[in-house]
Amino acid sequence: MPAPPLLTAGIYVIGTTLLFPGTILLLPTAPADAGTAAIAFLLAACSCLTVAALIDLHDAVTARAAVIPHLPMSTLIVPVCMLIGGVFFLAGSALYWPAWAGEQLGSTAWTVARFGTWVFRTGTCAYLTGSFVSLPGVLAEVKTHTRGDRARNAQFALGGVLSYIVGAALYFGGGVLSEASHPAPGAWAWAVGSGWFVLGALLLLLASASAPVLDEEQALLVASTSKSTISS
Fold this sequence. Notes:
This protein has 232 residues and is mainly alpha-helical. The chain contains 7 helices and no strands. The longest helix has 33 residues, at 35-67.
């Protein structure tokens, strides 16, 4: 049985909200001993994002196999991308744990934290892919429905997807700046990107709140191609 649209949308809101204090604590203005708390927030946030993506993927596979087999492939591609992004964000957060972040990787010049930055970067690419794959379906909804509940739902979904794209782009840029020996601008890019993620999750929550007014197929299509869209 598919999860209620508000359930996974709510988990995304919790996850992105936890990202925000995690990245704030990574700023140069944060206390010197805030690193452990920052990574703890990131681990909790990425766990939520991964769980939400797993629920979305389960619902999409179930619907495609037994309920609505003619749904477009994007209903599977998007939650798969979100799951990959969540898993890589979770792994990247673990690699930033202060106890081992500064250790060298064998005989290379790379530290564990630098490797974690690339893991985050891979996760960001997965999130961006999922967001861009979902975008045509959401734009089609905006074009098709110009008034009423469906129009409002589509507009919220579009705002959410675009917010996630901006947030993911800032996370990608933050990683590049950090690796280029500009940690302060990189940390600010992550913090601002987290704000965009929170905004996107809230907009998609509002879109999901309108889902009950849609027929079964349309509700699943909108949920699969927009709600799942996000997190470095």
